[in-house]
């Protein structure tokens, strides 16, 4: 054989690790191996893949893992095929002395068993359980398959069952009897030996950050009158688990009804986070942390993790990112434990610094800053490795009060809301389309768990598939942050000018969205003043790029004073930014020599410290194209030759400071301290995953001849502290143009 041609045995052994060969079947052929899905949180058709070999269950390393491997393994699990696979122990690590049976597995996808695929061989691995592979199988069984690996007492779901009548109607449910679901239905847990750590895990699953003591006397009386079925009689959680199924559990195998001597059903009481507190006093008491946030998620409790270090927000690198660290973040933000720890910028890429790398939490920390981590260096990570997460959040039942019907898919349709008539009857009704827009659509899509809003539509005659015709809500006005439409403003009584069903509100939702951010440092670097002769500004005047006083100037003599700067707008989202208007409605702009696809794409303003505009705001229209892209990303859009317009994910559109209209006319502004503000997509005309990063502000000092620009940053507005520190220029008055 090949190895015998090598003189030294050590060389032979080393080479066997680098030249994978088909795994020998010997006595453990494909018919004697067993496979199962383990881990948490998961559905029955997904999980950490485990193989039973030589009398012991073990895992498979994710090195060289592929969808072809997952196809083979899913068929061995009795499913028709795979839809995906996971790496980095997404479903938790194999615990204890569990071996890693296979590494560098390379299947073509057609093999009858993973045992005939190439690999390092049984038990030969250089991995740790941080690299345990998982599979996601299509939820369709092979004909005639019988699962011989069914765990009769597996805990599938956990719930809190309230016993107070009033508590059953109030959302969220924060207290109740702990019940677990298995193959036979719902059952209770015996509370003998029950600890606060067990309660901590249950509260985390329910979407709550903390647990509190509960008055058991009432529940003891209640339980004595009930017929209980105790499936579990012992739970021993450490408190860091993200699912009760990960805790050591002892099941009842005999008479489950009589198996809690001296005890009662386990009862848990949880403390909700600030977003879900039921009283205003509690909401004020429970403040959100100021140094950590989630960005880019479609729902509350999910997003890219960003932390504040010094005065600058930055991201976290996904090296060693796992459920323990993600759970610390989730609880710190007022949610429960983590449902998913996502890697590879799954919630979009951030901009600016990456503050933390190789975060390692034990799960007991109160803040992410208490966990071990490494400071980042430029070579360590890129924003393609930004860490993100999904948290367990309290169930609120919002999806039961709204629906969309008539669309081509479940992601679009006419919006209908559930309302109560005067006689108490529940009926579905329509929403008046007047004033309906992207912010309102964002709330509906979030409420239904359908991702982001692509469009908010004011006419839906093409989706007429329901017999519901009555308008029951009008004047709906949302900020876009609400959890449900019921939290938005609306008319007390319906007032709709176009009351026909064809003019009712509709939405189009999407799993992904774009996210535009302006390059703030570039604005600061490129800002300057130019006195431009009027004879060079005829084209700009025709396009309304000058203040009103320019019309009274002695054309073509004289000049206008222009504050010029470059705009570089990045798409850091997960979908291309495309104009809402079709090509037929694009407008030709002679100054720039191309078509503009958005009438108002940016607002340029100069304001006083209190936000009063001191220079007439310039509303800039744009042609959208990919000026340049990140490494490995190809340009897709260009303005020339009436080309397709947009900004690709990972690309940016650059409008240089020397282009016509790339300015603010400050000819009438007196010396003083001001705020330069640029807002992208100000009318929310195109959907984005995050609108809070669309504004950029800079401090400006203007002495009548020169301008100094500093502290350019992204955000909604300056903090109160910054506004207090804002000093007036000597002799400055409230310069305001009427």
Would you give an account of this structure?
The protein is mainly beta and 738 residues long. Helix content is 11%, strand content 30%. It is built from 10 helices and 42 strands. The strands form 9 sheets. Strands 9, 10, 11, 12, 13, 14 and 15 form a 7-stranded mixed sheet that branches. A hairpin with a 6-residue loop joins strand 16 and strand 17. The longest helix has 10 residues, at 9-18. The radius of gyration is 31 Å and the shape is globular.
Could you outline the blueprint of secondary structure elements for this entry?
Layout: H1 9-18, E1 21-22, E2 34-38, E3 46-53, E4 56-60, H2 67-76, E5 82-86, E6 100-102, E7 118-119, E8 134-137, E9 157-161, E10 175-182, E11 185-189, H3 196-205, E12 210-212, H4 216-224, E13 230-235, E14 249-251, E15 267-271, H5 280-285, E16 292-295, E17 302-309, E18 312-316, H6 323-332, E19 338-342, E20 354-360, E21 372-374, E22 388-391, E23 402-406, E24 412-420, E25 426-431, H7 438-447, E26 452-457, E27 471-473, E28 506-510, E29 516-518, H8 520-526, E30 528-533, H9 538-542, E31 559-564, E32 567-571, E33 587-589, E34 594-596, E35 598-607, E36 613-622, E37 628-629, E38 651-655, E39 663-665, E40 672-680, E41 695-702, E42 707-714, H10 720-725
Parallel strand pairs: 4-6, 11-13, 18-20, 25-27
Antiparallel strand pairs: 1-7, 2-3, 3-4, 3-8, 5-8, 9-10, 10-11, 10-15, 12-15, 13-14, 16-17, 17-18, 17-22, 19-22, 20-21, 23-24, 24-25, 24-28, 26-28, 29-32, 30-31, 31-39, 32-38, 33-34, 35-36, 35-40, 37-38, 40-41, 41-42
GO molecular function: copper ion binding; protein-lysine 6-oxidase activity
GO cellular component, one term: nucleus
Keywords: Copper, Cytoplasm, Disulfide bond, Glycoprotein, LTQ, Metal-binding, Nucleus, Oxidoreductase, Repeat, Secreted, Signal, TPQ
């Amino acid at each position: 054989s090949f190895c015998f041609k090598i003189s030294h045995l050590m060389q032979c052994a080393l080479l066997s690790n680098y030249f994978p060969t088909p795994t020998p079947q010997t006595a453990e052929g494909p018919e004697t191996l067993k496979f199962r899905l383990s881990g948490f949180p998961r559905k029955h058709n997904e999980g950490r893949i485990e193989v039973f070999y030589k009398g012991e269950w073990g895992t498979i390393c994710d090195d060289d893992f592929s969808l072809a491997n997952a196809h083979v393994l899913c068929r061995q699990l009795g499913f028709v095929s795979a839809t995906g696979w996971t790496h980095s122990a997404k479903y938790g690590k194999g615990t204890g002395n569990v071996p890693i049976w296979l590494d560098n597995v390379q299947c073509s996808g057609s093999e009858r068993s993973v045992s005939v695929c190439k690999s390092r061989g049984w038990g030969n691995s250089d991995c740790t359980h941080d690299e345990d592979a998982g599979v996601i199988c299509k939820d369709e069984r092979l004909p005639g398959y019988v699962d011989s690996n069914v765990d009769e007492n597996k805990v599938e779901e956990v719930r809190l069952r309230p016993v107070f009548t009033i508590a059953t109607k109030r959302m969220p449910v924060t207290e109740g009897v702990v019940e677990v679901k298995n193959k036979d239905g719902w059952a209770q847990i015996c509370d003998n030996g029950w600890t606060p750590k067990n309660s901590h895990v249950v509260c985390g699953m329910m979407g709550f950050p903390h647990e509190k003591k509960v008055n058991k006397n009432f529940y003891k009386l209640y339980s004595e009158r009930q017929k209980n079925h105790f499936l579990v009689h012992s739970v021993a959680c450490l408190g860091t688990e993200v699912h009760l199924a990960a805790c050591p559990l002892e099941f009842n195998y005999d008479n489950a009804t009589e198996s809690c001597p001296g005890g009662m059903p386990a009862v848990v009481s949880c403390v909700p986070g600030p977003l879900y507190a039921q009283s205003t006093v509690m909401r004020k008491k429970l403040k959100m942390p100021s140094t950590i946030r989630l960005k880019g998620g479609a729902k509350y409790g999910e997003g890219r993790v960003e932390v504040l270090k010094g005065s600058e927000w930055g991201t976290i690198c996904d090296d060693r990112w796992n459920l323990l660290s993600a759970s610390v973040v989730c609880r710190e933000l007022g949610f429960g434990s983590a449902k998913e720890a996502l890697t590879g910028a799954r919630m979009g890429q951030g901009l600016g610094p990456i503050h933390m790398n190789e975060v390692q939490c034990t799960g007991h920390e109160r803040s992410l800053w208490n966990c071990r981590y490494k400071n980042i260096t430029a070579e360590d990570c890129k924003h393609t490795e930004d860490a993100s997460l999904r948290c367990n959040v309290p169930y609120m039942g919002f999806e039961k009060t709204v629906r969309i019907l008539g669309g081509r898919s479940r992601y679009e349709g006419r919006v209908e809301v559930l309302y109560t008539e005067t006689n108490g009857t529940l009926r579905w009704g329509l929403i008046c389309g007047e004033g309906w827009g992207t912010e309102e659509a964002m709330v509906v899509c979030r409420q239904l768990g359908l991702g982001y809003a692509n469009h908010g539509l004011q006419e839906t005659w093409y989706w007429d598939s329901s017999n519901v015709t009555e308008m029951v809500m009008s004047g709906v006005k949302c900020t876009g942050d609400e959890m449900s439409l019921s939290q938005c403003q609306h008319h007390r009584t319906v007032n709709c000018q176009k009351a026909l069903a064809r003019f009712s509100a509709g939405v189009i939702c999407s799993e992904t969205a774009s996210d535009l951010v302006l390059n703030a440092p570039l604005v600061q670097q490129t800002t300057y003043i130019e006195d431009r002769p009027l004879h060079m500004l005829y084209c700009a005047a025709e396009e309304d790029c000058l203040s009103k006083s320019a019309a009274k100037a002695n054309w073509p003599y004289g000049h206008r004073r222009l504050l010029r700067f470059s705009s570089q707008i990045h798409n850091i989202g997960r979908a291309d930014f495309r104009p809402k208007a079709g090509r037929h409605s694009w407008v030709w702009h002679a100054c720039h020599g191309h078509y503009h696809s958005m009438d108002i794409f940016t607002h340029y303003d100069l304001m006083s410290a209190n936000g009063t505009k001191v220079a007439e705001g310039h509303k800039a229209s744009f042609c959208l194209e990919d000026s340049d892209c990140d490494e490995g990303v190809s340009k897709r859009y260009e303005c020339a030759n009436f080309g397709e317009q947009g900004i690709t994910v990972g690309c940016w559109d650059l409008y240089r400071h020397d282009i016509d209209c790339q300015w603010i006319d400050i000819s009438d502004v007196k010396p003083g301290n001001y705020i330069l503000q640029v807002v992208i997509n100000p009318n929310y005309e195109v959907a984005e995953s995050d609108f809070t990063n669309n504004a950029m502000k800079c401090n400006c000092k203007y002495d009548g001849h020169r301008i100094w620009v500093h502290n350019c940053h992204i955000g909604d507005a300056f903090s109160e502290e910054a506004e207090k520190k804002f000093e007036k220029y000597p002799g400055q008055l409230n310069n305001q143009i009427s």
